[in-house]
Known about the structure:
The chain has helices at residues 31-47, 49-64, 98-111, 147-157, 175-192, 200-206; strands spanning 2-3, 70-74, 90-95, 115-119, 132-138, 158-169, 210-217, 222-228. It has 230 residues and is α/β, with parallel strands linked by helices. It has a single domain (2-8, 17-228), classed as Vaccinia Virus protein VP39 (Rossmann fold, 3-Layer(aba) Sandwich). Strand 7 (210-217) and strand 8 form a beta hairpin. Helix 1 (31-47) packs parallel to helix 3 (98-111). Bound molecules: S-adenosylmethionine (SAM). S-adenosylmethionine binds next to helix 1. S-adenosylmethionine binds at residues 31, 34, 38, 75-77, 80-81, 95-97, 100, 121-123, 138-140, 143-144.
Amino acid sequence: MTSTPSSDLTEHSSHETATGRDPASNRPMSVEEIQASYAEYADLMHRFEWVDRLLTGRYRRRRFGDVTGRVLDVACGTGTNFRYLPTTADIVGIDISPEMLAKAERQLDDLGRDGRLERMDAQDLAFEDDRFDAVVSALSTCTFPDPVAALREMERVCKPDGTIRLVEHGRSDVGPIARYQEWRSDAHYEQAGCRWTQEPREVVAEAGLSVTDTRTGLLGIVTTFEIEPR
Ligand SMILES: C[S@@+](CC[C@H](N)C(=O)[O-])C[C@H]1O[C@@H](n2cnc3c(N)ncnc32)[C@H](O)[C@@H]1O
């Protein structure tokens, strides 16, 4: 089921990274512009999800495979994470893009899973405090105008004895790949509203979250986190 919250989808300021220039500093995109860009990409992302799974599936499985109870998937997109969540998990997915949510709905059907999907801004979640046993999110903080606000929202809605799990991307450890990412970062941001070289560890640290485990893979591009809410 897909629904829209009653609260306004508000605009937040651009986030500056400590290393490198934030491509959003040229012209920060609003939540509405990012939503419009994902309306355009929803079909493409759905069709090429198998490539994403090939590259990131093992990281998602390791980070998300043991969560339990009521699980919130923040910026669930086309629902790529769903297959990596245990079948016992009670899935709630939110995303800003109705087009991405429509694909996520199909994903639930294809997987034969139940779940509730809602259109919502990750930076201003319409859930009460301590609502979820686990909050998961993948490849998402790079697209939030204010990723620190979104991470603090994830912590707010997670139970104190719950867990927050992230699979994020950033600048590669491999020089030529990193240089290519830097070279393309403005164009990539303009196209997809994604900060390709944002360093996820910096953003998580800036949000003041308590990381209990973090790992890096895929030539340094993928960083995953287990976070304990305070
Ligand atoms: C790169 S996709 C990742 C989707 C999915 N988590 C995955 O791993 O495939 C980023 C997603 O973030 C969503 N998004 C961007 N800004 C958002 C916001 N402020 N609130 C909620 N979702 C947002 C986009 O609509 C898109 O579905």
